[in-house]
Amino acid sequence: MKLVSFCCGLVIFAQTMVFAQSNPVPFVNQVLDPVSVQPGGKEFLLTVNGMGFAFTAVINWNGSPILTNVDSGNRLTAKISAAQIRKAGTASITVTNPAPGGGTSNVVYLPIRQLFSTVAMASSSPTCCTALTVGDFNNDGKLDIATGSDYPYQEIYVWLGNGNGTFRNLIATSSPFYHQNAMLAADFNGDGRLDLAVSDVEGNTGIFLGKGDGTFTEVSALVSPFSVPAFMAAADFNGDGKLDLYVASEYNPTQFLIYQGNGDGTFQATQAVSIPGQQHRCSRGRRLQRRWLARPSVGKWSRIHQHLPGKWG
What we know:
By secondary structure, this protein is mainly beta. The protein has one helix at about 1-20; strands spanning about 25-30, 45-50, 60, 65, 70, 75-80, 90-95, 105, 110, 130-135, 145-150, 155-160, 165-175, 180-185, 195-200, 205-210, 215-225, 230-235, 245-250, 255-260, 265-270, 275, 290-295, 300-305.
């Protein structure tokens, strides 16, 4: 009898521990399958790849949960009806893990559009744009563009999208950075509004919380141990239900650092990790200099690459 009671207690304890485990914030890879669909098309199977999908995870179509099949912790599928793609537009795709922990992933967009063979571009930027990212920064269901500025400007620019490939209302937010080197859009404080992580060429990374109208407020500055933080990604790397920030260097030494999120837009730095065998093309000893030289014989200019003295890394 005691043995039976002990076994029952052990089972209950194990179940309690399983259910007590905190689900991570899921992360969705940028490429969906399919990558786009045509309006007025037939029902199709949407495949979402990523990481940290709980066995009860659901796919959200434009913020609304849909019937989801969990193939694995890295793959989800769902049938999308013809009615959902009847008109041209852009669908936002996210994944939600339930409590305990859990949360909603980053957004990946699925274009619903006719095929076309040419693209026309136009620019009205008041200054040279550096870093760039895309997201719905005013929560109107239309994609906007956020860009950085170059010296001597210290601003973040947001172009609000009209949903038809055109943009309006350039909005500027002051920034302490002169030359933003990289940008990443994610909801770092879980309020349903996209925030920005911005790095510059001086080794700084700033977190700007979105107000939901295309403007931002800086809440924290993260100091990096390497000179130029250039590559960033957001995911729940430690499975505590809060988004963390991955930042990697552009130049040697090649390193990356994980900032563990506190869930309010602030972070705690971990130890930087060096990547052995991964060396940037232009090491400390030998830099690659690009120059434009005149070619009088043909009346044109040509760009050449000149290697300054030193050794390859």
